[in-house]
Amino acid sequence: MKTRMTFALLVLALVPSWMTTRAAAQGTATTGTVQVTPPKPAPAKAPAAAAGKATAKATTAKATTAKATKAEGAAAKVGPRSIIGEVVDPACWIVNGAKGPSHKECAIACAKAGQVLAIVENKTQKLYMVATDKPGEDPNKGLIDYVGQTVLVKGRVYSRGGATGIKVASVEPYSPTAVPTE
């Protein structure tokens, strides 16, 4: 016990002197504050050239924003839609590419634990998260029976901030050879 106390006192006595020596070697103060030097101002440009570049940058920014908006709108049509795709666990699909019958049991276990299911559209490989109208409503209701299967989902598509969701109105197994009945 005496050895430990002696060692602790020795360390406490040496640390401040060690910090002072280190600070002196680096040329900084021992107060723990950091000295910040202000950045050097950029060299002044000719006013006409700067104004022309600013206008060009503003035009380019507007064009880029318009393109991004058009691309987002083209990527996911908002409103009523029918999607043919597979019901998946989105976490496993995004991270591991896991889907299909071989991943069915894992996806069902995740859904029962609270993971919201999603639809991966066959044609585009776009992921549609399943959404509901009311808080606390189970979004997986009606979908969990179709995990790992290709389905035809009808519903309303929403898109915001790069994420796309679908509020499911109906879901049924999809068969490309099925003859539509009227």
- Report the C-alpha radius of gyration, rounded: 30 Å
Indicate the CATH architecture of the domain at 74-173.
Beta Barrel
Q: What integer is the average pLDDT?
A: 75
Spatially, the strands of the biggest sheet line up as 1-2-3-5-4
Structural class designation:
alpha+beta
| Number of H/I helices | 4
Total count of strands: 5
Which CATH class of the domain at 74-173 is shown? Mainly Beta
CATH fold title of the domain at 74-173:
OB fold (Dihydrolipoamide Acetyltransferase, E2P)
Distance between the termini: 90 Å
Annotate the secondary structure layout.
Elements: H1 2-26, H2 47-75, E1 79-88, H3 90-96, H4 104-112, E2 118-121, E3 127-131, E4 150-160, E5 163-173
Parallel strand pairs: 3-5
Antiparallel strand pairs: 1-2, 1-4, 2-3, 4-5
Question: Could you explain how this protein is built, in words?
Answer:
It is a single chain. With 182 residues, the chain is α+β, with helices and mostly antiparallel strands. The chain has helices at residues 2-26, 47-75, 90-96, 104-112; strands at 79-88, 118-121, 127-131, 150-160, 163-173. It has a domain at 74-173: Beta Barrel (OB fold (Dihydrolipoamide Acetyltransferase, E2P)). It is built from four helices and five strands; from the N terminus they run H-H-E-H-H-E-E-E-E. It has a five-stranded mixed β-barrel. The longest helix is centred in the middle third of the chain and has 29 residues, at 47-75.
Task: List the defining traits of the structure above.
single chain; 182 residues; alpha+beta; OB fold (Dihydrolipoamide Acetyltransferase, E2P); extended
